[in-house]
Write a structure and sequence with these properties.
Distance between the termini: 11 Å
Number of domains: 2
Strand order of the largest sheet: 2-1-3
Structural class: mainly alpha
Keywords: Membrane, Transmembrane, Transmembrane helix
Strand content: under 5%
Order of helices and strands: HHHHEEHHHEHHHHHHHHHHH
Number of helices: 18
Length: 491
């Protein structure tokens, strides 16, 4: 049993120590990458290929090395799509702002003359390099010992052959760790492209421009090239397995062949699905953050209008109770003399409440029932509030009695409209509505694949389904090791 554990530790789990990490990755992202590499070896190959393709070690100075390793970012305005994951660790004091975002600078961006004096912290992970070498040797020995009786017995389903993809992953990541240094954070560089200055404590240099130099290929083309190279590297282990076993089944059972080959084929071929996992999860995380901000603004309006509609109902009931059949007390508006302000101001102030009330009613009507609790509402309260908002809007539009206008004016002015009176700053309904609308537009800008929860969960389910054969493959390998009966020779 112990030897079987050694086999799994040395041939599968230990490879997790060799994957190249991206600049600024958190432990959560590294853990996710480790699990994906364990289930889908091609994901580790992609990371290694990307590190090799960066050629960061050949940069002329620290800034160029960091740029090639995608460890440098610049602050750009909101209309430029950022690509730095929201979970990335940033060097220095960076205060996120709704009008700005972070974008990686192109890998061949030129820095200014002072770049040679800039030093950026990085390291060449000796532990990972040594682990890659050790694991490569260990798996090569395992593969060598798979010849002969083991292949004769299990054919191409032999457990010793299942380590082949991990050998390639270890070699590729070994080269990647040698060529590309490791950066624990993302560094921000200064740029003059912003219309308004944005101060960041801890910038590391200046760049000349954001344009690519010469005939450098685009990021998208580079990504496709990485996928192609990774796919070729991932297909090589299947070819080796075929060469060593001639795809003879031996005396292996059908479940053994199905589980091991499905595991190896899926683990070596799903390059696009696996490599985009980090980007999709980050986009989903960013969408949830934006959704939270939107719901916070929406909750402000809900809280404000709960007070408005409550006080309005009280004022209406009071007015109806005190109303007498005296036309002198219920005057039609013919002049603004009895109002605290003139009619033009009243019309402007009506817009301050009518616009937010209408938009809030629309948003509450569209909100899924399962998210009402975020606003402190349930289905019953939602229906009542929509009804109160519609009644409020109709009453204000059709209101003609001076006494009623005075009551509404007092409620609005004291609590929710800009005022020079009082010790506290009242809430501005219209500005809150605009802020909520901006958050809503930000949500709409997120790609529909992350915007629609069903699509996201379909992708997540696909990833889980494709990863299931790896779990089944590990179980089958464990059973074959026990059946083979010579664990001490293969560990």
């Amino acid at each position: 049993m112990v030897r079987r554990h050694h086999f799994f530790l040395g041939n599968y789990i230990a490879h997790a120590a060799t994957i190249t990490t991206l600049p600024g990755e958190t432990w959560v992202d590294v853990t996710l990458a480790t699990v994906l590499a364990l289930l889908f070896p091609v994901s580790g190959v992609v990371r290694g290929v990307r590190a090799i393709q960066s050629l960061a070690i050949f940069g002329r100075n620290d800034l160029e090395k960091a740029a090639r390793a995608r460890a440098l970012a610049v602050i750009v305005e909101k209309d430029v799509r950022g690509d730095v994951p929201s979970s990335t660790k940033i060097h220095g004091a960076y205060y996120p702002h709704d009008d700005y975002t972070l974008k990686f600078i192109p890998k061949y961006t030129k820095s200014k003359a002072t770049a040679d004096s800039v030093q950026i912290s990085c390291n060449y992970n000796v532990v990972k390099i040594l682990a890659s070498i050790g694991q490569t040797i260990f798996e090569a020995v395992t593969l060598y010992r798979a010849r002969g009786d083991q292949i004769d017995r299990y054919g191409y389903a032999s457990f010793g052959l299942t380590v082949t993809p991990y050998i390639f992953m270890s070699v590729v990541n070994l080269l990647g760790n040698l060529v590309c240094p490791t950066y624990s954070t993302i560094f921000i560089v200064r740029s003059n492209s912003l219309r308004y200055p944005y101060n960041v404590d801890g910038t590391v240099g200046d760049i000349k421009d954001m344009g690519p130099a010469g005939r450098r290929i685009s990021l998208y083309a580079s990504t496709v090239i990485n996928w192609v190279i990774a796919a070729v590297c991932a297909a090589a282990p299947i070819a080796i397995i075929g060469g060593m076993s001639s795809f003879q089944s031996g005396s292996s059972t059908l479940p053994q062949r199905v589980w091991t080959m499905t595991w190896l084929v899926l683990g070596s071929s799903l390059v696009i699905i696996v490599d985009t996992s980090k980007h999709i999860l980050d986009a989903r995380r960013r969408y949830l953050i934006l959704q939270k901000k939107y719901e916070e603004e929406l909750k402000k309006l809900v809280s404000a209008f709960e007070k408005i509609t409550g006080k309005f109902r009280t004022a209406k009931e009071k007015f109806e109770a005190e109303a007498r059949p005296n036309n002198d007390l219920i005057q039609q508006i013919t002049t603004g003399a009895l109002l605290p302000v003139n009619m033009d101001t009243w019309e402007l102030q009506k817009k301050e409440i009518l616009g937010p009330a209408k938009e809030l009613a629309d948003e509450l009507g569209k909100m899924p029932r399962g998210r009402l609790y975020k606003l402190g509402l349930d289905e019953f309260k939602r229906r009542n509030m929509i009804r109160d908002l519609e009644t409020l809007g109709w009453e204000i539009v059709t209101m003609k009695e001076v006494h009623r206008i005075r009551e509404v004016w007092s409620i609005m002015q004291e609590n929710f409209l800009p005022s020079s009176r009082g010790d506290t700053e009242p809430m501005e309904l219209e500005s809150t509505r605009k802020s909520m609308s901006e958050r809503k537009r930000d949500l709409a800008d997120v790609h529909p694949f992350q915007h629609r929860e069903n699509d996201f969960y379909i992708w997540l389910g696909l990833l889980v389904v494709c990863g299931a054969p790896a779990i089944g493959g590990f179980v089958v390998v464990g059973q074959m090791i026990i059946d083979y009966g010579v664990c001490i020779r293969i560990a």
